[in-house]
Amino acid sequence: MKDQKEYEKRCKAIRLYEEGYGFNKILRMVQRSRFWLSKWLKRYKEQGGNGLKDRSRASRRIWRKISDRLVKKILSIREELESHKTRRSAFCGIGAEVIHWEFERQKIRDIPSISTIARTLSRYGKTGNKREQRGNGTRRPYPYFKAEKIGDFHQTDLVGPRYLRGFGKVTRFYTFHTVDVAGHTA
């Protein structure tokens, strides 16, 4: 109802303008501002009668959507990390943080956020642990060394790279773990 009355005021203002009434007189008759009348006159001159109708206020761009090129790049980096073809990717993770790090390492501009990368991976079914369990069928790791008491045998492992999220930045780090086999203590 309100939109219809507004549309009728626009039509009345244009009709008065075409009949030769002055700008100030039209403004008094329709009780609108100078800017309002200028806007609708301009639209009327450009588009005719259709220019007086309300336009959609919906955004013409989907802000959260990323380009197909970027989606393909995210998925290709994920495939490369999953295949472990290079020595660098053999011990690397495959998550959104790692992909973000790869974008930075390759100096790609307009890097999507970690959450956007995670959302993209989820949309294409690339989340979750799909790696097969490997082993010799027993609960003991192979090769197995028997440690009788604490301090007899230690197991050392280099872990990384790992990634920590900070204030708009991802930090890459490695850790060095040594565990007592008998006591299971660090």
Kindly state the percentage of residues in helix: 40-55%
Morphology: rod-shaped
Strand content: 5-15%
- Mind summarizing the main beta sheet? 2 strands, antiparallel
Number of domains: 3
Count of runs of 4 or more consecutive helical residues: 7
Roughly how many Å is the radius of gyration? 33 Å
Q: Gap between N and C termini, in Å?
A: 74 Å
With strands numbered from the N-terminus, the spatial order across the biggest sheet is 1-2
Blueprint (SSEs and pairs):
Layout: H1 2-18, H2 23-30, H3 34-47, H4 68-83, H5 87-90, H6 96-105, H7 114-123, E1 154-165, E2 170-180
Antiparallel strand pairs: 1-2
Helix pairs in contact: 1-2, 6-7
Polypeptide structure, described:
It is a single chain. The protein is an alpha+beta fold and about 190 residues long. It folds into three domains: about 1-50; about 60-130; about 140-185, no CATH class. The protein is about 40% helix and about 10% strand. The protein has seven helices and two strands; from the N terminus they run αααααααββ. It has helices at about 1-20, 25-30, 35-45, 70-85, 85-90, 95-105, 115-125; strands at about 155-165, 170-180. A two-stranded antiparallel ribbon has the order 1-2. A hairpin with a 4-residue loop joins strand 1 and strand 2. Helix 1 (about 1-20) packs antiparallel against helix 2 (about 25-30) and helix 6 (about 95-105) packs across helix 7. The N and C termini lie far apart (about 75 Å).
Features:
2 strands, alpha+beta, two-stranded antiparallel ribbon, 186 residues
Brief overview, please?
It contains seven helices and two strands, in the order H-H-H-H-H-H-H-E-E. Helices cover 42% and strands 12% of the residues.
